[in-house]
Amino acid sequence: MAKILFFLFLVWLMGALGAAKTNFLDDVILSELDDLDVEDGDEAEFGNKILVNIDSFGAVGDGASDDTKAFVDAWKQTCSTPKSVFFVPAGRSYLVNATRFRGPCVGILRVQIEGTIVAPDDPKNWNFAKNGRIWLGFFNLTGLCSKWWAASCKKNKTNPCVAAPTLRYKGEGPNNPKWPTDEFSYFSIRLYRITGVTVSAPEDSPNTDGIHITESTNVVLQNSKIGTGDDCVSIVNASSSIKMKRIYCGPGHGISIGSLGKDNSVGIVTGVVLDNAFLRGTTNGLRIKTWQGGSGYVRAVRFQNVRMQNVSNPIIIDQFYCDSPKSCQNQTSAVEISEIVYRNVSGTSKSQKAIKFACSDNVPCSHIVLNNINLETRDGTAEVYCNSIQGLCLNSSDKKIKQKMDAGLDEPREEYIIHTEL
User: Fold this and answer.
1) Is residue 80 part of a domain?
2) Staple partner for 261: which of 18, 21, 205, 291, CB 3.0–4.6 Å?
3) Over the Cα atoms of the chain, what is R_g?
4) Which residues are catalytic?
5) A GO molecular function for this record (predicted)?
């Protein structure tokens, strides 16, 4: 078995003219991330809880009767009662149509879903003019099922590309919930903790990001298991201080930052930490993906203590991302990617190239740190691909691996100019 074993402890930033600058150590790069380590939630703030059970508001829970009104009424009660818990009991299925749960609410509240919430099961029954893509949310979800995915233009080329309803949370912390996108989507959130979420969708279900975070800051995602047909977790524009811990991903497209920069747009993501994750059978592992022509930056990101099993592209940065039926035009501008740390990443790679850094010639990646990376393949052909990285230095105990890394830095990038969805 070919083993890729890297111990990189030093990154040196080179200027445009190649002038040497100040040493740039791993801990210096991400010193501001020291405050981003994920801490477990404090149950004390939910002492003396008031349980608001949807069954007390007339919910039937047989999976066929419309329980929308019971959910709305229970939400109103929860929202107006301090230290209350919106509770969906286990062992029953509740059919709920498109609903917006509105705040602001009194004090801190919790949503605890142990049962199953069922969405309308046929696209024909969905009123796009009225509801758009807004459904509701949160845990043990079924209902965005095969009929929706079969109607996708990605699976049936004769159908128009119309977005399916997904789940969205909007608000500032737990005081101000609005439930309108992907399996779970969180946008415009500040100070929010997501824990114990399970998302399950078929591996071939299109555009089913498990957890999608956008325009949010100070979000914690932990103790969650996600299997889907797209990214297990995707973090996109205007997001910062995103902390993830104890995440299981598979099947799916891995844990992604992006895509960013589509249609020459600005994309900014900063301050992301993933600590303690297991990825199994995914088409990507730890991925940063940006379109050509964009602007903005991704910086101050740390992936650590990650175990992979049979994962394609375990570590990948792709500044030539192109999820389009047509070839994407080469452009010189790009979203800047810098201050990225991979630490204690191990396991098996399904793809020949276990590490891919496909960075822009005009806007190179910089300050990339790999520390204690141990990835293996079964057939002895593990490789590293690097294009246009400033400041990547290698100190490896394996001379063959060092030679392979050095060779990878000189590889041409032509085959990576056009990237479709993996």
Assistant:
1) no
2) 291
3) 22
4) 253
5) polygalacturonase activity
Q: Which long-range contacts (CB under 8 A, 24 or more apart) does 184-188 make?
A: 184/137, 184/138, 184/141, 184/210, 184/211, 184/212, 185/209, 185/211, 185/212, 185/213, 185/214, 186/211, 186/212, 186/213, 186/214, 186/216, 186/219, 187/213, 187/214, 187/215, 187/216, 188/215, 188/216
Tokens 């209902």 map to which residue? 143
**Residue located via tokens 């060092």:** 402
The type of residue at 306 is V
Q: What is the pLDDT along the chain (422 residues), one digit of tens a residue?
A: 444 443 332 233 233 223 333 344 444 444 444 455 555 544 444 457 899 999 999 999 999 999 999 999 999 898 889 888 889 999 999 998 888 887 777 777 777 888 888 878 777 767 777 766 667 643 322 333 445 455 555 556 666 655 554 444 443 333 222 222 344 555 555 557 788 888 888 887 766 778 888 888 888 999 999 999 889 999 999 999 999 999 999 999 999 999 999 999 999 999 999 999 999 999 999 999 999 999 999 999 999 999 999 999 999 999 999 988 888 999 999 999 999 999 999 999 999 999 999 999 999 999 999 999 999 998 877 789 999 998 664 544 334 434 444 554 444 444 433 343 33
Domain interval for residue 38: 2-42+87-416
CATH code, 141 = 2.160.20.10
247, 274 Cβ separation under 8 angstroms? yes
To the question of pTM greater than 0.70 for the whole model, the response is no
Report the C-alpha gap between 152 and 123 in whole angstroms.
Answer: 11
Burial 152-178 (b: 16+ CB within 10 A, else e): bebeeeeeeeeebbbbbbbbbebebbb
Among 163, 189, 167, 164, residue whose Cα is nearest residue 180: 167
Q: How many domains does the chain have?
A: 1
What is the pairing mode between strands 2-7 and 365-377? antiparallel
Give me the sheet containing 383-387, strands edge to edge.
168-170, 184-187, 211-214, 233-235, 255-260, 286-290, 315-318, 353-358, 383-387
Whether residue 94 lies inside any domain: the answer is yes
DSSP E strand boundaries for 149-294 = 168-170, 184-187, 190-195, 198-200, 211-214, 217-227, 233-235, 239-249, 255-260, 266-280, 286-290
Residue 131 lies in a domain: yes
Residue 351: phi, psi to the nearest 5?
Answer: -90, 155
